[in-house]
Write a structure and sequence with these properties.
The protein is an alpha+beta fold. It folds into 2 domains: 207 residues, no CATH class; 75 residues, Arc Repressor Mutant, subunit A (Orthogonal Bundle). It has 7 helices and 14 strands. The strands form 5 sheets. A 4-stranded antiparallel sheet has the order 4-5-7-8, with no helix packed on it. Strands 6-10-9 form a 3-stranded antiparallel sheet. Helix 1 runs parallel beside helix 4. The two termini are 32 Å apart.
């Protein structure tokens, strides 16, 4: 989604954009931010299931990851591949589903539906975006890309002579139910994919991770990916990845040299929410070291 932010006088870390002017207005209920870390044991926060750059549409493109236990492909349609910023809508969907399921288990609400029905303004509020006209247009384009992007997982099954494959959409459909008098998006209906719904609802211990809400303020796609990687791998401790591994798993088309320069800039800024970044020399090249800020 696009971003037109009202700047203020408060100093802001280089990696984060300022929060919008309406950030503290309690117009809508906003649950804690959650994400789905795995699908069938495959770490989907370890790879980019979207493009990181807003500039390259990657229409009809495929990003392919060869993992030890599976081959994962991200496939896009004519609207272009969904971006890591478009995925904010999926995070909202997961977060509301996780909250509704928690209340249901506590006897305080019904079993949540697979139909998620937010208002366009609620989406912008949750994703910490201003309520400008450009943002509503960007929201509609984001829904187009999300509906046309899916994940194909071909799992290596060592017990059998074949591989199990599955196709998993980021959203299973979206409908504009109403518009405002000015033509902006009003009410939406987004169908939650089975793999996300089952991960939250069908498990006794839901497969979700909490995420810092300042994640939405992270400017660069690579910085967002590094935060996701940190939240999944480091947790409350430490994790390390070879630069080349991060390069391979973020789906970038940038040459390794340029990618390394950008990654080193993130390490120098060292201002991501919750996690400190450092570079160390590894046996086969530079390492990104991620530590949780105690």
């Amino acid at each position: 989604m696009g971003e037109t932010i009202q700047e203020d006088s408060i100093p802001q870390p280089p990696s984060l954009r300022p929060a919008p002017a309406n950030d503290n207005q309690p117009d809508f209920f906003v649950p804690a931010l959650h994400d789905i870390p795995v699908k069938d044991g495959i770490g989907l926060m370890d790879i980019a299931v979207f493009r990181l750059s807003k500039k390259q549409t990657r229409k009809g493109d495929i990003i392919r990851y060869e993992l030890p236990d599976a081959v994962v492909e991200v496939v896009s349609s004519g609207h272009g591949m969904a971006t890591i910023y478009d995925y904010d809508i999926v995070l909202m969907m997961i977060s509301h589903l996780a909250d509704a399921m928690k209340r249901h288990r506590q006897g305080q609400g019904p079993m949540p539906s697979k139909k998620f029905r937010p208002h366009g303004a609620e989406v912008l509020k949750f994703c910490r975006m201003p309520y400008g006209g450009r943002q509503y247009i960007a929201l509609e384009h984001a829904l187009d890309r999300l509906q046309g992007t899916y994940i194909k997982i071909t799992a290596n099954d060592r017990q059998d002579s074949f591989r199990r494959s599955g196709y998993f959409p980021l959203v299973a459909g979206a409908t504009v139910v109403s518009r405002t008098k000015t033509g902006r998006l009003g009410s939406l209906e987004i169908t939650i994919p089975d793999w996300i719904y089952d991960g939250v609802v069908r498990h006794k211990v839901p497969e979700v991770l909490t995420v810092n809400p300042d994640y939405f303020l992270i400017r660069k796609g690579l910085a967002r990916f590094i935060y996701r990687l940190a939240r999944k791998a480091a947790g409350a401790g430490k994790a390390s990845y070879a630069f080349r591994t991060v390069h391979a798993r973020c789906g970038t088309t940038r040459q390794f040299k340029k990618f390394s320069h950008e990654l080193r800039q993130l390490i120098a800024d060292n201002d991501l929410p919750d996690y400190a970044l450092a570079e160390e020399e590894g046996r086969d090249g530079p390492l990104l070291v991620i530590r949780h800020r105690a």
